[in-house]
Specification:
This protein has strands at residues 6-18, 25-32, 36-50, 53-65, 77-82, 87-92, 95-99, 104-108. By secondary structure, it is mainly β. The chain has one domain (6-11, 30-108).
């Protein structure tokens, strides 16, 4: 059981590819999917470095109710919102891990 403190939306992309007559790329269209309730846990790394400078790096672990088979579309990009509906940020998905013992899915961004 998760303690819901936000939602995620999965970015869905349609179309795209290469135009067979011209050989030029065709731009894919994208839209955000439905809101899925989640529990997100932020982690800060204050020892991270970028180009020799100290930076604070924030990552999130996101928990969803249900195993990974319920969420086959989570593979590229998500948008995280807090419990008030405010957008926290858009993230690329690093990993999706099914937690079968507790019937949850963990998404690292």
């Amino acid at each position: 059981m998760i303690i819901v403190n936000g939602t995620i939306e999965v970015k869905r992309k349609d179309g795209g590819g290469i135009d067979p007559t011209t050989g030029f790329p065709i731009t894919a269209t994208s839209e955000w999917g439905e809101c899925l309730p989640c529990q997100y846990l932020p982690t800060e790394n204050k020892q991270a470095r970028s180009l020799g400078e100290a930076v604070t790096r924030r990552t999130y672990a996101i928990l969803l109710e249900g195993h990974c088979g319920c969420y086959p579309c989570i593979n590229e990009q998500i948008r995280l919102r807090d419990c008030c509906g405010n957008i926290i940020d858009e993230f690329s998905v690093v990993s999706v891990t099914p937690l079968r013992a507790v019937d949850q899915t963990r998404i690292d961004v």
